[in-house]
């Protein structure tokens, strides 16, 4: 069995000012770097040794992984990047304020169709339809890349005999993946930066142990506080 520590990247500039990041990218803020340092220290305190690391190819997840591996004493392990676990692409709304898309364009589109809102498939297809740049993905493409990306990582890890792997991805991508694994449950919303969704993988199937846990960050925060008090 493979234990999968699925992490949302650290807080970025666009996260801070409420812009839809998508496939666009901004670096971690000082607060974001501090939060992921806490996460790495929490992993270290629990004695978690990762056999392999994965992230999307976005700068914010790569930067996050560096802080995790360095502060958890896991530097030097195999590390791969995979564009399939990128965030949703918002097309021409990438970089726009969240409210413009999620509180403006999409509600109006659903209202025109006589609905108050939509499920993930309807939201993805609505973004695809209003995207004037032609970059956004229809639901089937988005769904399949997320599923195959995470499954392929876990399957490779299982074949190698890995026990623990860490994956850094994005908030909406992670919540979409959780919903796809458990369609009977409500989709998690507003996963915190640096939160950990813990999964077990065996024989082609995932089992969810925790969603959006802040346990490791809180532990790291306590360690940093204790160290500061000593000095």
Automatic annotation (TrEMBL):
CDD domains recorded: HP_PGM_like (cd07067)
Pfam (any one): His_Phos_1
A Gene Ontology MF term for this entry?
A: phosphatase activity
The cellular component terms of Gene Ontology attached to this UniProt record, alphabetical and capped at eight, are:
cytoplasm
Binding residues for substrate, per the UniProt record?
A: 8-15, 60
* Positions annotated as active site in the UniProt record: 9, 87
Q: InterPro entries recorded for this chain?
A: His_Pase_superF_clade-1, His_PPase_superfam, PGM_Phosphatase
Which SMART domains does this chain map to?
Answer: PGAM (SM00855)
Please state what the protein is called.
Phosphoglycerate mutase
- Tell me the organism: Lactococcus termiticola
């Amino acid at each position: 069995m493979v234990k999968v520590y699925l992490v949302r990247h650290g807080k970025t500039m666009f996260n801070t000012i409420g812009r839809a990041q998508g496939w666009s990218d901004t670096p971690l803020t000082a607060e974001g770097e501090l939060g992921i340092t806490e996460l790495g220290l929490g992993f270290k305190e629990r004695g978690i040794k990762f056999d392999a690391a994965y992230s999307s190819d976005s700068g914010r997840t790569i930067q996050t992984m560096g802080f995790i591996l360095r502060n958890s004493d896991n530097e030097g392990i195999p590390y791969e990047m995979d564009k399939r676990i990128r965030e949703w692409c918002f097309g021409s709304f990438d970089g726009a304020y969240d409210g413009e898309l999620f509180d403006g364009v999409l509600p109006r589109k659903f209202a025109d169709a006589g609905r108050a809102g939509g499920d993930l498939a309807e939201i993805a297809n609505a973004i695809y339809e209003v995207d004037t740049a032609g970059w956004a993905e229809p639901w089937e493409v988005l769904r399949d890349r997320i599923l195959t990306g995470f499954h392929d990582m876990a399957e490779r890890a299982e074949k190698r005999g890995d026990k623990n792997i860490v994956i850094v991805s994005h908030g909406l991508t992670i919540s979409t993946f959780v919903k796809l694994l458990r369609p009977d449950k409500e989709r998690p919303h507003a996963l915190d930066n640096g939160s950990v969704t813990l999964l077990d993988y065996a024989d082609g199937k995932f089992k969810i142990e925790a969603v959006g846990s802040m346990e490791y960050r809180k532990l790291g925060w306590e360690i940093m506080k204790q160290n500061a008090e000593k000095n």
